[in-house]
Amino acid sequence: MTRLNNANLDRLGCEVATPGYARGAVTPGIVHIGVGGFHRAHQAMYLDTLMQRGEALDWGIIGVGVMPGDRRMQQSLAAQDHLYTLVVKHPDGSLEPRVIGSMIDYRFAPDDPEAVIEAMADPAIRIVSLTVTEGGYNIHPASGEFNLDDPDVCHDLAEPGLPRTSFGLVVEALARRRQRGVVPFTVMSCDNIQSNGDLARRMFGTFARARDAELGAWVASEVPFPNAMVDRITPVTTPADIDELEQRFGVEDAWPVVCEPFTQWVLEDRFAAGRPALDHAGVQLVEDVEPYELMKLRLLNASHQALCYFGYLAGYRYAHEVCRDPLFVDFLMDYMVKEASPTLAPLPGVDLARYRRGLIERFANPEIKDTLARLCAESSDRIPKWLLPVVRDQLASGGEMHRAAAVVASWARYVEGTDEDGEPIEVVDRLKEELMAVAAGNRERPTAFIEQHALFGDLARQARFRDAYRAALESLHERGARATLETLVRA
């Protein structure tokens, strides 16, 4: 067994790819807040790819943890010289391990916020990137705006030199750069959120204005917040993953990362102080990321909804099981080709037919073990954002939308709380009580579910959608999921 660190890289087996560059020559250019599995399988991997080409050696990553739970990441990475193993899980069961060397340091902010601030204030740092999840943007649940009443935010506004939050850390570093006449860094969100850069701009801008109006105006005018579309399925690392890496490849790694083969990053090319040549590593740099976001939301994300409720009701429990069933695959492809794709704007550099086929292949990867229960969770936040825009666009254009209506019906049937064998379903949703109460009357009032205006707007008054939804729901009750899909595929 070989413990992962700089000294032992040459002792790893030939099956494990290792950095082909001198890590001592890598200098920092990026500070990244929120080092989790996705960052290490995505952004850090792209930087490592560039470094393997002899490029971007001045774009090393300093990781930063802000949350109490981040201490474990700091300790794990420090013990192995900030190296970790990225293991790509292929559908045939083969594993492709690769040691990533683009991260050169990690700071746990609660221990020394001043060191983190000064690291970001250093002119060598030209990008501060984020993967903090939607919860990390401090969005008020009622207003949708920045929550200025959060206790840690209030502390940071009162004590700007001792911040507890990412907002306090980043804005204090920007304030020092402004005071010192240093060009601001770019704030680059890599979170899997639509318009992630716009969201970051709003949240960090509000904090900066609350701290100082002139500073807030400077941030608004001088600091870029590019939008990005990011994609790579990265399951939580399990003890079995750690054991398998040790047993099959002889690598002792405290916290490896596992992921699917597919990866995508579409990024708006707006930076204040330069950027790595990310396009040399496969990143698509564009003027406007929105068309690519809509592609992902309406094809990938909405297709997850199209398979999960029907699949669960039919007795499946994993996405790969569903996507190895030809009936479900035919339904998904019909939805993507005939309903979702016609709503998309032109997408330079994307072969849509290949992208759609690739989605099915990704969903069918048995090594990822993506549960349908996960895909079915929090549907009241997902369906209105991912699927209903397809319905509305198709209604407006006269296009097909009966499959999307059937997906909504499968959600309504799922929320009744039992599958077709009478087994209980654990519904996970912030609106669970309201949804289940309405769904309990699905048989007596078949359109009651879509009459929830906060979720569906006026769609219940749209005859084409209402009729398609009602027909699918009645079929689900009378004939079940498979028979309903057979009818939809034949239509």
Produce a short descriptive summary.
The chain is an alpha/beta fold and 491 residues long.
Describe this structure in words.
This protein is an alpha/beta fold and 491 residues long. Helix content is 45%, strand content 12%. It is built from 21 helices and 13 strands. It has helices at residues 37-41, 43-52, 71-78, 113-121, 151-158, 166-180, 196-211, 213-222, 239-249, 290-313, 319-322, 326-340, 352-363, 372-376, 379-386, 388-397, 402-414, 432-439, 453-456, 463-478, 481-490, and strands at 2-3, 28-33, 60-65, 84-89, 95-100, 103-108, 127-130, 186-189, 228-231, 251-252, 257-259, 264-268, 284-286. The strands form 4 sheets. The chain has a 5-stranded parallel β-sheet with strand order 6-3-2-7-8, sandwiched between helices. It has a 3-stranded mixed β-sheet with strand order 5-4-11, with helices on both faces. It has a 3-stranded mixed β-sheet with strand order 9-12-13, covered by helices on one side. Strand 4 and strand 5 (95-100) form a beta hairpin. Helix 7 (196-211) runs antiparallel to helix 8 and helix 10 crosses helix 15. It is globular. The N and C termini lie far apart (58 Å). The mean pLDDT is 97.
